[in-house]
């Protein structure tokens, strides 16, 4: 096979890289379990890579179509203003409320929804979330648009779709938070892409939205990795969903489509020890410069076979058949 030329990052991103490796901040190689440190997409004062983040955002804003969709007032908006919490609490069991919030979310711009009991692992170090429940929402991205990655000034579609769906995820979580507030319970919406206290990936895994893939993104059994997340935390009585395991760990061990497709070779082929847990891991220091110059990259998501519409069902059927053969 022809060897790919090594990717040479743009000077503006190399110059903005701090001395501290992003992988060190993420705890690569650490054997003790600990909370994740606030990192990229966090407020500048809370993180080590603020200058690099600023450079990535400046570059993103130099493309008008991408700047518009990531602006505070994008087409379609970012969702309603927060309503007052109702003085009277509407009664309902945890089972009833779980059904109602999921039904509301799915009828109000969400494509996926799951519930998890709050866990310290879902909170970035130095922050606190006291709500006992997190409702995680996923919104799908159009594959044909996403497949136009990497985005360029001439064709920014692959980045515009990401911004567009982050905005839908924002609207979905804000509407859901208002629904809960109107029922008399506290609720807080957590839209992306900027991060704050809530570490959304572990929460989404616990809420049953999918399994972690080798490319560091979640793989869902229907949407693959072509979706974006937002969330709502609340004290409303709810029931936790189970995590959804359908063979991704094994599948990723045999498939290297994302590692082969990643231009800066950022995706580790083997699991790594990260903050006391062996897991799939993407080399931040290699990924981000390419991510920056392509307005968010996403090549690994597009190349993941699970992300192609209509393919996930086929793969699941094959995995089920293989499991039956192994059992028999
Ligand atoms: S986002 Fe792009 S650079 Fe980063 S891991 Fe995926 S393919 Fe590689
Ligand atoms: S492309 Fe293959 S190895 Fe990479 S995340 Fe998807 S299934 Fe796993």
Q: SSE string, helix = H, strand = E?
A: HHHHHEEHHEHEEEHHEEHHH
Strand order of the largest sheet: 1-2-6-3
What share of the residues lie within helices?
25-40%
Rounded mean pLDDT score:
95
> Structural class of the helix and strand makeup?
alpha+beta
Total domains, how many? 1
Termini, distance in Å?
38 Å
Count all strands and give the number. Answer: 8
Give the helix tally.
13
The poorly predicted ranges are: none
Beta-strand residue percentage: 5-15%
CA gyration radius, whole angstroms: 20 Å
Instruction: State the shape.
Output: globular
Hetero groups bound? iron/sulfur cluster
What's the story with the biggest beta sheet?
4 strands, antiparallel
Helix and strand topology:
Blueprint: H1 11-16, H2 22-26, H3 50-60, H4 64-69, H5 94-107, E1 112-117, E2 133-140, H6 143-146, H7 157-182, E3 187-190, H8 200-206, E4 211-212, E5 218-219, E6 227-234, H9 248-254, H10 257-261, E7 272-274, E8 277-279, H11 284-293, H12 299-303, H13 311-327
Antiparallel strand pairs: 1-2, 2-6, 3-6, 4-5, 7-8
Helix pairs in contact: 3-11
The chain binds iron/sulfur cluster (SF4) (2 copies).
Notable characteristics:
single chain, alpha+beta, four-stranded antiparallel sheet, two-stranded antiparallel ribbon, 38% helix, binds iron/sulfur cluster
């Amino acid at each position: 096979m022809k060897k790919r030329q090594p990717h040479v990052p743009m000077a503006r991103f190399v110059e903005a890289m701090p001395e501290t490796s992003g992988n060190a901040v993420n705890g690569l190689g650490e054997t003790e379990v600990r909370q994740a440190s606030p990192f990229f997409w966090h407020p500048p004062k809370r993180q080590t890579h603020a200058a690099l983040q600023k450079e990535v955002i400046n570059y993103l804003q130099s493309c008008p179509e991408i700047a518009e969709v990531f602006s505070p007032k994008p087409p379609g908006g970012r969702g309603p203003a927060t309503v007052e919490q109702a003085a009277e609490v509407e009664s309902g069991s945890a089972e009833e409320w779980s059904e109602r919030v999921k039904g509301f979310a799915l009828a109000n711009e969400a494509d996926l929804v799951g519930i998890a009991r709050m866990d310290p692992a879902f909170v970035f170090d130095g922050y606190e979330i006291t709500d006992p429940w997190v409702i995680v929402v996923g919104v799908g991205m159009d594959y044909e648009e996403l497949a136009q990655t990497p985005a360029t000034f001439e064709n920014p579609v692959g980045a515009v779709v990401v911004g567009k769906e982050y905005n839908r995820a924002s609207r979905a979580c804000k509407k859901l938070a208002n629904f809960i507030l109107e029922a008399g319970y506290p609720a807080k919406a957590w839209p992306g892409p900027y991060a704050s206290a809530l570490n959304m990936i572990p929460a989404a895994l616990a809420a049953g939205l999918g399994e972690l893939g080798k490319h560091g993104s979640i793989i869902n059994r229907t949407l693959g990795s072509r979706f974006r997340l937002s969330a709502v935390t609340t004290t409303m009585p709810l029931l936790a969903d189970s995590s959804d395991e359908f063979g991704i760990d094994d599948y990723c061990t045999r498939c290297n489509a994302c590692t082969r497709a990643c231009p800066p070779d950022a995706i580790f082929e083997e699991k790594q020890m990260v903050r006391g847990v062996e897991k799939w891991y993407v080399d931040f220091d290699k990924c981000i410069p390419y991510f920056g110059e392509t307005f968010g990259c996403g090549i690994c998501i597009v190349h993941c076979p699970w992300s192609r519409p209509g393919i996930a069902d086929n793969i699941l059927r094959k995995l089920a058949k293989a499991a039956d053969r192994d059992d028999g």
